[in-house]
Write a structure and sequence with these properties.
By secondary structure, the protein is mainly α. Helices cover 60% and strands 5% of the residues. It has 26 helices and 9 strands. The strands form 2 sheets. Strands 5-4-3-6-8-7-9 form a 7-stranded mixed β-sheet. A two-stranded antiparallel ribbon has the order 1-2. The longest helix is centred in the C-terminal third of the chain and has 30 residues.
């Protein structure tokens, strides 16, 4: 007979050593290398520049990027990062820390939810599964509001789960517990933070998940448990002020922010078009398996464990556990229906997926008999992964530039844009990529058969630890891959080259969508003009009066280039596609090429080449 946990048991950490293990794992998977990478473009430099501008300019209502109103995203990430920048100054780790800290908070909430539903062992394993998943390692190092959103959704679900677990049951199988209605306040706080992190989706997900749970489980939560009056009041107090002030200060905000940026984005028919290349539904589902690696093979079995076989015979705790499965299925199903979905959209499902996997492994630690389903899953992995590893070794020997670019395009929207638009291989050689692919192949050949062998001979702890080690080694490979991509994607070297030559009255012009060079205003601290770049994230803001002069057409730029004032032009475009081809050969100087950025000047600064010779 199962014993329902008491609120005292689930409400506190049972073991400091468990928390210490989570912190140690988070130190490697989440915090290691946080400040050692330059900000990459697109997006990372832009988010850093927005927070920097907020900290310096003092406008905490309307985010600005390069002096242009940026109303694509809610302000919570920018508020927190701007505050941290004002305390510690400019640094890459400061820009990334508000992805890493929410990732750590999510791991701790995963532990608490695991305690609530499954007990201490499953709680610890669930948290370790979560922090060691490949997607967490990647996106916890990427400055963006995504992990603030994941943390907020998880906080909301934690608040509801505690309330639901101890509320009276419609089914009548269990006696109701004494309920503290204040527990559900966490639900409303989580929703408010989610809305301030990512917009309306922060309200939609919790309502969908809870609604589906109440429908399928037969559970009910009384008005007293909902604490509706206090919760709604708190939600509105947290959410309404910014939205009202933003609408008051920015004409057109409500239509752009709610209709175009959220509803029409879901349908992929925005008026203000972005350059993103969305994933197909099949590719989105396949990429979930990549980003939950190395736990991908246990997910089908784990998902079944979250769904009771019969509502009428399920115990109370089993019915409440249905929340975990519905949480994962709601997020994945919602974005599967969207016409505009990217890789990281799966992230709100990482917690329930980790809880399922952790519960499954915890059952193995306490059972004298191995789970047949898990044995089959790991056995399939032990057969399939060596074949994949052999394929990777074969591929490594024949790797081509197009093959590298196509592979990157499968997992990163930036390279998918390059691939779709027919851009060539941007790196000098494939040799470094060959080594990474070869090492990854070796891990597949050795790692998964070892995991299965340990499990088969009833060493589940060693099997789990080996799988965790596989995740750590692959994480190091991913970190090495990002270091290879950094010189091409980061504008830091171009920004430093500019800073070494800039005088206060000089002007910088960037050609194209400025989100692809957000690191330049971040690292230089200077405002840029934009040539033929009224598009993407800045298009809406470019029509406000104070920003119109920043956006130049060809004729205006040509006149500016011919003046006595020094002008620097930064472009990612090849000469054949750039306005540079129309500039006079005499008086146009190539200062240098820095990764994917070329830097030109209309005046000699001493060590550049005449453009005609450089071309």
């Amino acid at each position: 007979m199962r014993v329902r946990p008491s609120i005292e048991t689930v409400g506190n950490f049972n073991s400091r050593s468990n928390l210490l293990l989570i912190l140690l794992a988070s130190g490697f998977f989440i915090f290691w290398g946080l400040g050692s990478l330059n900000l990459l473009d697109p997006d990372q430099g832009m988010y850093g520049a927005i927070a920097q501008e907020m900290a310096k300019g003092g406008d905490w209502i309307t985010p600005h990027f390069d002096g242009v109103r940026y109303l694509e995203k809610p302000p919570l990430y920018f508020w927190l990062t701007a505050f941290t920048l004002s305390l510690f100054g400019q640094s890459e780790w400061v820009v990334r820390v508000w992805s890493a800290l929410p990732a750590l908070g999510t791991a701790i909430l995963t532990y608490r939810l695991g305690q609530l539903f499954y007990g201490g062992a499953a709680a610890l394993l669930s948290a370790l599964v979560m922090v060691s998943s490949l997607g967490v390692l990647r996106y916890a190092h990427q400055p963006a509001p995504d992990f603030l959103f994941v943390f907020s959704i998880t906080l909301a679900m934690y608040g509801f789960a505690k309330t639901a677990l101890f509320a009276p049951s419609l089914s009548g199988n269990d006696q109701p517990q004494t309920v503290n209605g204040r527990l559900s306040i966490l639900f409303y706080v989580g929703i408010a933070l989610a809305v301030l992190s990512k917009g309306l989706i922060g309200l939609i997900f919790p309502i969908l998940i809870v609604g589906l749970f109440l429908w399928f489980s037969g559970e009910r939560v009384t008005w007293r448990q909902c604490n509706l009056a206090g919760g709604l009041t708190l939600f509105l107090v947290l959410v309404l002020p910014w939205h009202l002030l933003a609408a008051w200060k920015n004409p057109g905000f409500l239509w752009f922010y709610f209709v175009d940026n959220q509803f029409l984005r879901f349908l992929n028919c925005r008026a203000y078009i972005e350059e993103d290349v969305p994933l197909t539904t099949l590719a989105f589902l396949a990429e979930i398996l990549i980003w939950v690696f190395p736990w991908s093979f246990v997910l089908p079995v784990a998902l079944r464990e979250a769904i009771p076989r019969s509502r009428s015979t399920a115990t109370r705790i089993e019915r409440v556990r249905l929340l975990v499965g519905l949480w994962a299925l709601t997020v994945i199903g919602f974005f599967s229906l969207s016409f505009s979905k990217l890789e990281h959209y799966f992230l709100p499902a990482i917690v329930p997926l980790s809880l399922m996997a952790g519960k499954l492994w915890a059952g193995e630690l306490s059972s004298p008999v191995a789970s047949t389903a898990l044995k089959w899953s790991l056995g399939i992995a032990a057969l399939v992964c060596p074949l994949l590893g052999g394929g990777l070794l074969f591929l490594a020997l024949r790797l081509t530039p197009d093959g590298v670019l196509m592979g990157l395009a499968q997992v990163d929207v930036y390279y998918r844009i390059l691939w779709t638009h027919g851009h060539g291989f941007p790196f000098a050689s494939v040799s470094s990529f060959v080594r990474l692919v070869g090492i990854l192949g070796g891990i597949f050949i050795i790692g998964f058969p070892l995991v299965f062998a340990l499990f088969y001979f009833r060493h589940p702890r060693a099997s789990f630890a080996t799988l965790l080690g596989v995740g750590a080694v692959v994480g190091l490979l991913v970190f090495r891959l990002v270091l290879l991509l950094e010189p091409f994607q980061s504008a830091k070297s171009a920004a430093y080259a500019l800073s070494a030559r800039l005088e206060p009255e000089d002007r910088i012009v960037y050609e194209g969508d400025l989100s692809y060079a957000g690191g330049i205003p971040f690292y230089t601290g200077r405002q840029l003009f934009v040539l033929n770049g009224r598009q993407g994230d800045l298009e809406f803001g470019s029509y406000y009066p104070e920003a119109k002069h920043l956006f130049l057409d060809n004729a205006t730029f040509a006149r500016l280039w011919g003046h006595d004032q020094q002008v620097f032009l930064v472009t990612r475009l090849p000469v054949q596609q750039s306005f540079v081809r129309y500039l006079p050969k005499v008086g146009t100087f190539l200062v240098g090429r820095y990764g994917s950025y070329s830097l030109y000047s209309n005046r000699s600064v001493g060590n550049e080449q005449q453009f005609d010779a450089a071309r």
